[in-house]
Q: What sequence folds into this?
């Protein structure tokens, strides 16, 4: 066996050290890009679950004849008529009978008390009749809304406009357009 001189040994150790350094830098870059991809995937999944993607809210006051409802179902003709009980729309927590399409695509009829209106997510947070029955319902999935006590048609667009006016400190109009 031939002995290694110091120069040859030093050269081989420098090559091994450089190779380990290149592998470490490559591993670090790969791990960083993988974590960024995972983070973006988790953020996108959370946004789709909570429906925080940008969705402009179209209310009945802007161009109601244009046909652009932004995912909201078309209101029947009789819904445009004035409602006798205008004070119904001033309640921030109405009790409603909703007919909507659930997340599985099934038509559902449920009596709920509205807890909160979320205009950013275009949803209402509502409490059902059972215990611990808190639901987040997308406004676009609601087909028909009726007042639970009287059974009268409840216009969600009118109610949303009233809630916006109350939040802005404006005095709601007594009549309807």
A:
């Amino acid at each position: 066996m031939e002995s290694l001189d110091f120069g040859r040994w030093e050269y081989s150790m420098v090559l091994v050290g450089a190779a380990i350094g290149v592998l470490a830098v490559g591993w670090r870059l790969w791990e960083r890009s993988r974590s960024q991809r995972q983070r973006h995937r988790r953020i996108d999944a959370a946004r789709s679950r909570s429906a925080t993607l940008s969705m402009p809210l179209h209310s009945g006051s802007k161009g109601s004849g244009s046909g652009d409802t932004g995912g909201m179902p078309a209101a029947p003709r009789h819904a445009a008529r004035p409602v006798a009980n205008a004070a119904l729309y001033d309640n921030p927590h109405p009790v409603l009978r909703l007919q909507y399409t659930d997340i599985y695509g099934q038509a559902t009829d449920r009596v709920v008390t509205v807890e909160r209106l979320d205009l950013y997510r275009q949803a209402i947070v509502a409490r059902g009749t059972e215990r611990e029955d808190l639901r987040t319902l997308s406004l676009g999935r609601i087909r028909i809304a009726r007042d639970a006590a009287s059974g009268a048609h409840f216009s969600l667009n009118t109610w949303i406009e009233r809630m916006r006016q109350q939040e802005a400190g404006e005095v709601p109009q007594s009549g309807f357009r």
